Amino acid sequence: MSTPNTAPNSDAPAPVVPDGRLLPAPADSLITDDEDADTGPAVVVRPPADPAERFAVVALGGSAGSIEALERFFQNLPATSGLAYVVVLHLVHDQRSHLPEVLQQFTNMLVYEIEDGMKLRPNTVYVLPPDKDLSLLNNVLLLVPPTQAPGHRLPIDFFLQSLAKDARERAVAIILSGMGSDGALGLKMVMENFGMIMVQDPETAEYDSMPRAAVATEFVDYVLPPEELPARLLEYMQQPVLERPNGALQPGDAKPTNALQKIFLLIRTQTGHDFSLYKRNTVFRRIDRRMNAHQIRDFAQYVRFLQENPHEVELLFKELLIGVTKFFRDAEAFDALKNYLLPILRAKPVDSVVRIWAPGCSTGEEAYTLAMTLQECLDQLPTKYLKLQIFATDINADGIDHARAGFYPANIEADVSGERLKRFFTAVEGGYQIRKEVRDVVVFALHNINKDAPFIKLDLLVCRNLLIYLSSELQRNLLPVFHYALNPDGLLFLGPSENMTGFQTLFTPLDVKWKISRRNDVPYSLARISNFPFSLSRQAAAVPAIAPPAMNPSPRKEGQFVTLIQKMLLRTFAPPAVVINSKGEILFVNGRTGRYLEPAPGLGAMNVFDMAREEMGFELSGAVHRAHLQHEDVLVENVKLRTEGGYQLVRLTVKYLDAPEALAGLLLVVFEDMPTSKRQRRQAQAQESLTRDSVVLALEKELQYTKHRLQTTVEEMESSLEELKSTNEELQSANEELQSTNEEAMTNKEEMQSLNEELMTLNVQYLNKTEELSQAANDMKNLLDATAIATIFLDNDMAIKRFTPSVSRIINLLPTDLGRPITHFASNLRYERLVEDVRQVLERLVSIETSIQTHSGEWFAMRILPYRTLDNYISGAVITFIDITALKNLEQQLQASTAFAESIIENLREPLLVFDAQGRVLTVNRPFTQAFQVDADQARGQQLDQLSRGAWRLPGLQQAIARTIDTGEGFDDLVVETHFPGLGRRHLQLYGRHITNGGAQTGQLLLGVSQIGE
To answer: Which intervals hold domain PAC (predicted)?
Structure first.
C-alpha cells in the first residue's frame, strides 16, 4: 500500500511508514514539562478549548483472532472519517509488538505506537504497547504500569472506563474477536455516559468469547461483521437520528413531547413503572439507541412500533434502567466510608442490628461491596457482635434474580483484590460465587423508590449514581425521604456527580469529594414533598372547623322530647309556656299562648322575640338574655298586657334548664296572669290617657332601660370577644396539638408501612427458604427410600422422630407412632439389648455395630450412631438396619463347601495338602500326616518350605508352583528327592492343581503325592 497522500500534521506524533520505520514525533505532540525532562515527561492537564477537538474517539478491543477483524475493519474505513482510533489488544508482555507496522498496511491513516502524554488527533490510529495500561484525560493518552498479573489483566476494560469518563457521548467502543470477557464491564460505562457500542458478529469471529460476553450485557447498539462496522459507525456519527444536541429537546418539539408521553404510558401499562420523572436527555438518548437499532427515524413511527411489539417495550424498559455497576466502584470512596462507619459501629450496643439500604442495586455488585466493607469494619471492633442487615432494592426483576444468585464472571478480578476473593468468594467454573455468609446478610427485593415507602431506621443509605438520571423535581423529593429514613447521625453516601443543593440543612458534609454526609437531627416537614404517590406527608390533616350553632333547630324525636317537657312542666308550672333556645327559636309550645304571642308579619318564623306582644317585648328579651348568660331563673312581674277588657298584669318567668341532658341549655318561658283588681285596671286606663308629659316620661323610662340594656349588651359583647379570643387561642393550641398528633400518627403509619414492606421482603425470603427446605426434604426422602435402609431417628428421650418405610420388617411402626418412645414397641429381633445399646450411645457418644437376626430368619447389620446437628450438638440417635441375609447365606454356603471339600480331601487315600499363594499350609489329610509323620494342627499355618524341617524346600517344586500360579496350569509326575527327619531319603512323584470355584480361581493350590519310594 502506498504512503498516505496527506502530509502529517505539524503537531502529530511519529507515524509508522509502510517499510516499518518510525518517524520522529514532533515536539508538541507530547504534552510535557521541560523542567522535568530528565525525569521523564510530566503530564500537564490542559482541557481542549477548541470545539474542533471534540471529535469522537473509537476504541477497538480484542485479543486472539482480532488481527483479521482489524484488517477487514480498516480496509473499509476512509482515511478522512474525522475520528480518532485507539487499538487495545492483549499482547505478550515481554515482547516488542509489531502491530503498528501490521495495521499501517491496511489503512492510509497514520498509525502510531502510543507514548506517554501523546495527544489524540482525528484521522489517526493509536496502538497500545505491550505491558502497559492506557487511560485518557482531556484527549491526552497516559500510559501506566499494570497493577494486575499478566494472566489477570483487563486492559480493554481499563481503557474503556477512562474513555467513558473523558469523552462521554463522544466515546465509541468496538469489541472484536477474542477469548475471555474483557471489555464487558467497560462498555457498560460507555453506555452509561451516552456513548455508542458496536460488537463484531460472533458468527464471524475466530474466537467468539469476547463478542458474546459483550452481547450478553444487552447494552450493544450494533452487532455486525467487521467489514460492515465502518459504514454504520460513520452513519451514526454524521447523521444522528434525532436533530437534538445530546438528546436535548428543542423548543417547538411538541410532537416528540406528545410521543414521549405515549411511550411513558406504554411502559407504565406493561411494566407498572413510570419514567416521566427521569431526565429528558437521558430518556431521549436511550430511545435514540433503540430507534437506531431498528432504523426508525420518526418518533411517532417508533410509538406505533412499540404498540405493535410488546417485546420492544420490555427491551426499552431494560434500556432505561441503565444497570451499570461493579465491585468497589471508586475504591477510595469505600475506604473513606470505613472511617465514618467505624464510630457508628462502635457506638452500637452489643447484639444490635446495623441497617443499610442500597436503592438501585442493579445486579448486586454494590450491595455485596457494602457487605464486604461492613464485615471488614466489624473486624476492627474489639469483641463486639453486631448483626448486619442490608436491603438492596431495584425495579429490575432480572437484576434482582442475578444478584440473589451471587455468581459473577472471572473479570471481577480487576476490581476485587485477591485477599477479598479468597475470603468472600468461592471459585467455580466460569467465575466466582459469593459465599453464603455474605449472601445471608443482603436481602434483595423489588422496590420502586419513586412510589414505594422507604426502609427506615437506617444507619447508612447508599444511593450512588442513581440521582443523576432523575429529574431535579424527583431529586428534591427524594432527599427529604432519605433524611426521614436515616437514624440521627446516620450516613448518606451519594455518587461523585450528585449533590444536595437546597437541602444543606438536612445533612452535614463529611467528605466533599466522595459525597459522604451525616444526617442532621433537625425537624423537617415532609409535607413539602410534592408529586409522591406514597404517603410521607407529616402535615396534619385538615382539622374540621368547629361548626357554628345551627340557624335552624336540630330536629328532635317528638315522643321522648314531649315526654320530658311535660314532666318538667308538671313538676314546676302548669300555665302556658314555650321552650326556646338562646336565640329565641321556639322548640315546644305548651298550653294556650295566644294572649301573649302572635304570628309576626312576613314569612312564618317561630321566634319568641318576633311573636311577643309589643307591651312585653323588651321585658321578655331582657329576661331571656339574663337567664341565658347567668344560667339562673329570672322573674318579671307586673308586666302590662293590653286586652279587650283593659290591661292585664302578667308574671313572666324564664327558667334555665340544665337537666336532664337532652334539655340542657334550653330556656323555659312561662306566661302567668296575675290577679288584677278593678282599681289597678282603672289606674292602667288612666295612665293611658295621661298628658304628653307623662307619655314622654314613660318613653324616657323605656329609653333609659334600653340604654342600660345596650350598655350591658356592649359589655357582654366585649367579654364575649375576650372569651372568643381566648377560645381562638385555645383552638389554635388544640389545632397545633392535633397537627402534632396527626404527624405522629402519620409517622407511625409510615413506619408501619415500611415495616410491612420489610416483612413482605423477609416473607419472600422465607418462602424461598421453605421451598429449598421442601426440596431438600424431598431429596432426603427419595434418597432414604432408594437406599432401602431401615432407619429410625430418635431424640434424647428415645422418642421416635422419623423412620423409613423399611423399618416395618423389623419393628411394626405406623405414621401415628411419631413421638412415642421406642421402648413401647416389640421388635422382630432375636436381640434383647437394643434399648440398652441406644442408652449407651447417648451416654458415651460412641457408635455400636453388630449383626442381628429376626425371628423370620433375616439377618441385618445394625448400627447405632449419635445424631449430631450442624452445630455439633447431640440431638438423639440414629439406628440403621442393613439387610445382610444374602451375605449370611453365602457365608454359610461357603462354610459348607469348605467343610465338604475338607471331607473329600480327608477321605482320599493319597497324601494331600492345600496351601495358598503365599505358601501357607491350609490343610493336610490323614494319609499325608501318616506318610510324613507330621501333626495336622501344627502343619496348618506353616510355610510349605518350613514343613518337616525344610524337607519340602525343593527348587524344582518351587518353580512348578510358581508356574502354576502364573499360568493357572497344574503339573503332573514331578519327581523329587528329599530327606525327611526320622524317615530318611524319599523319592516322591508329585502333582499340583489350582483349586477353582465355579470356574474362578480361589488362590489356593492342591499338592498331591502319587508315589513314595526309598
So the answer is: 846-896
